[in-house]
Amino acid sequence: MEDIWEPLGKMVLVKKDDDKECTSGGIILPSDSKIPVITCRVLEIGQLVDIINCPIAKMSKILIDPSNAIPISFDQSNKRYIIDSEKILAIQKINYTRNKMGVETDSVDKINEDDNI
């Protein structure tokens, strides 16, 4: 059974996205390559997070510096971290478009169909 964690104050609970083994251009990345920033999904948001200055929601895709992240567990398979909301570097924007039927869809869903959380 997985522990349940609720971030306090301005903290945010995130889950690190899977590491990429290949770039979009087809370049294979070495397994020991150090990436200065990582993408994550927001799982929980502390009650004091300023939604106006930091417009995040659950399942938002964000960019963080891993040196600012506190691991939930020191197990090598751990992918969950706590981070101060003020240390979030970027949030992925969602672009809404109309499909042939005139219905609004978000282009992020099409791009991230194969992202597993």
Describe the structure.
The chain has one helix at about 105-110, and strands at about 10-15, 40-45, 60-65, 70, 80-85, 90, 95-100, 105. It has about 120 residues and is mostly beta strands. A 6-stranded antiparallel beta sheet has the order 4-5-1-2-3-6, with no helix packed on it.
Structural class: mainly beta
Strand order of the largest sheet: 4-5-1-2-3-6
The fraction of residues in strands falls at 25-35%
Helix content: under 10%
Q: Provide a count of the helices.
A: 1
CATH class: Mainly Beta
CATH architectural grouping:
Roll
Number of domains: 1
Low-confidence stretches: 108-114
The protein's oligomeric status is single chain
What is the alpha-carbon Rg in Å? 16 Å
CATH fold field value: 10 Kd Chaperonin, Protein Cpn10, Chain O
Please give the largest β-sheet. Answer: 6 strands, antiparallel
SSE pattern? EEEEEEEEH
CATH superfamily: GroES chaperonin
C-alpha termini separation? 17 Å
Mean of residue pLDDT values: 77
User: What is the 3D form?
Assistant: globular
How would the blueprint of this fold be written?
Blueprint: E1 11-16, E2 38-45, E3 61-64, E4 70-71, E5 80-84, E6 88-91, E7 96-98, E8 104-106, H1 107-111
Antiparallel strand pairs: 1-2, 1-5, 2-3, 3-6, 4-5, 7-8
